Amino acid sequence: MENSNIPQPEKILYTGKTHTTGGREGASRSSDDNLNVKLTSPGSSRPGTNPEQLFAAGWSACFIGAMGIAAGKMNIKLPAETAVDTEVDLAVTAGEYSLQARLNISLPGLEPEVAKTIAAEAHKTCPYSKATRGNINVEITIL
């Protein structure tokens, strides 16, 4: 492993497997073929998605799950219209490529303070948030 200071998992719940060729101008598919996408660079006129969009989609989905767990611990049901609009920027920082992100959270019908508490707890527990914590700038906004 890359960092021996990181605790090893007790149990693996799932392993996502993909095969990617051609980098940003290629294709990627999952081992179960449920994901099968053409890849393209951001701003390209070619059809396809890019890694930043895929990362944003994965983080959004995971974050909603984490908010559901946080809300459940508070005996609150997430609104059916719960949504997370995630923006992932490909940037240049100190001459090197980097990422930064904004998670714009919609929890309609919940009091603003309750929504903030749920989002803050989700940001502590979401695996994507944990993976990026301290590595990229992340802004969380309650809409």
TrEMBL record:
Pfam families in the record: OsmC
Sequence ranges of Polar residues compositional bias: 33-52
InterPro entries linked: KH_dom-like_a/b, OHR, OsmC/Ohr_fam, OsmC/Ohrsf
Disordered, as annotated region: 1-52
Coiled-coil annotated residue ranges, if any: none
Source species, domain of life: Bacteria
UniProt similarity note: Belongs to the OsmC/Ohr family.
Stated name of the protein: Ohr subfamily peroxiredoxin
Origin organism lineage: Bacteria, Pseudomonadati, Bacteroidota, Flavobacteriia, Flavobacteriales
